[in-house]
Amino acid sequence: MWNKAAETMDRRSLKKLQLERLRETVTKAYGAVPFYNKLFKEHHVSPDDIRTLEDLVKLPMISKIDLRDNYPYGMLAVPRGNCVRIHASSGTTGKPTLVCYTKEDVSNWSEVMARSLFMAGLRRGDAFQVTPGYGLFTGGLGFHYGGERLGAMVVPTGTGNTIRQINLMRDLGTNMIAGIASYALHMAEVAGSMGVDLHKDLQVRRGIFGAEVWSDGLRKKIASLWDMDCYDIYGMSEMYGPGAASECSAHEGIHVWDDHFIIEVIDPETGEVVGPEEEGEIVMTSLTKEAMPMIRFRTRDLSRILDVGKCSCGRTHTKIARIKGRSDDGISVNGVKVFPGQVESVLMRNPDVGLNYQLVVEKSGALDKMTVMVEANGTLADQAARGLSSSIAKEIRPVLGFSPEIRVVPPLSIERSEGKAKRVLDLRKR
Ligand code: DLL
Questions:
Q1: Alpha helices in 132-254 (DSSP H)
Q2: Tell me, what's the pLDDT at 416?
Q3: Is 364 helix (H, G, I), strand (E, B) or coil?
Q4: Residue with CA closest to ligand 1 atom 9
Q5: What pTM was estimated for this model as a whole?
Q6: Which residue of 159, 212, 328 sits with most ligand 1 atoms within 8 Å of its CB, as the best mutation to test the pocket?
Q7: What superfamily does domain 1-329 belong to in CATH?
């Protein structure tokens, strides 16, 4: 383990540490950030009300909207001059949400990233290629600092220029890559077109991926295309970036680094905390962030806390299921909520389905019409394409409760994205 003392700390000590750090965080936020001060007063709570970890539910929750409203520096708990870095998440509407970091924040983030990368098998001296974008997105620099902290040799290619990316993997003997899951598929396609055999010509045997939902089916595809062991890593700009939680070699869920974050799972409708193993929306509280403490931040991500006790890997930190989707990524089609993850799970089970898909929603008279565009796994004759589309249609109907049109298209016909994949094209909004 990268930090055995922290990663295997007994639950009692972990909880004690969480409470100490929670009280410090809440006191600091209340004293230094007018936004929290006002919000707590409106809810008639103060830092003195936090005596146990269970008292956390007394505090109000916050969301991305609060970060936007306080753009750019309204959520800072330290003087502007103490910040050494900013990142932002682009968001689909309006202003970006900005996050600031002190030197200590960058160091804590590098620590959780080093733990996560070590847990996924990265070792000192390995060539570690970082394929997410560098810049305001937290992906590139997050993996970069974690890899350096661990002592790996970081290859900071960032995203794009995929041919050079593959050539470097071959020339440098890259052992492990980090990225966005859908980009791993795209790289595999480009390698194929270059005549590079991922199994024989490259030594990439481990990959760590996140930043978007990727189903177990997609993961199996990536693992077999690359002949690699895949690990899931979760995080968001508001909690430093990638590395709030990460997967261990048991491959049965992801560990949340409990000494840096408190995770709660709530019913997204009522806001009440749900029980272990019950699915709901993840709410995160930061315990070590100095520049921008986040108290009960609603992530919109759906998962559940796994009731496993101590993990077979020896770590004691809370385990959650891989992220299933976002409570706000459902699209309404004639009043029925459709989540891309549901469709992906059906598609990726089918060996004749290729590497990309997209849901297109448009108006057809007064009604909505949804088409599932699916790339085939190779060039198919008309009859085979019809066969594939009818077998997908049969499997999708019971999952969605209605029958979307299924259109099977040749490999590479759906546009690739170098960042997070665009799974939905909603033409009703144009
Ligand atoms: O996507 C940080 C990140 C970069 C994580 C690289 C992992 C790897 P944001 O741009 O702020 O930060 O987006 C955060 O992405 O709330 C989830 O909806 C989604 N997300 C992140 N990791 C996963 C994952 C980065 N492993 C939002 N599985 C989060 C599913 C994920 N969704």
A1: 138-150, 162-172, 181-193, 216-226
A2: 86
A3: strand
A4: 236
A5: 0.94
A6: 212
A7: ANL, N-terminal domain (3.40.50.12780)
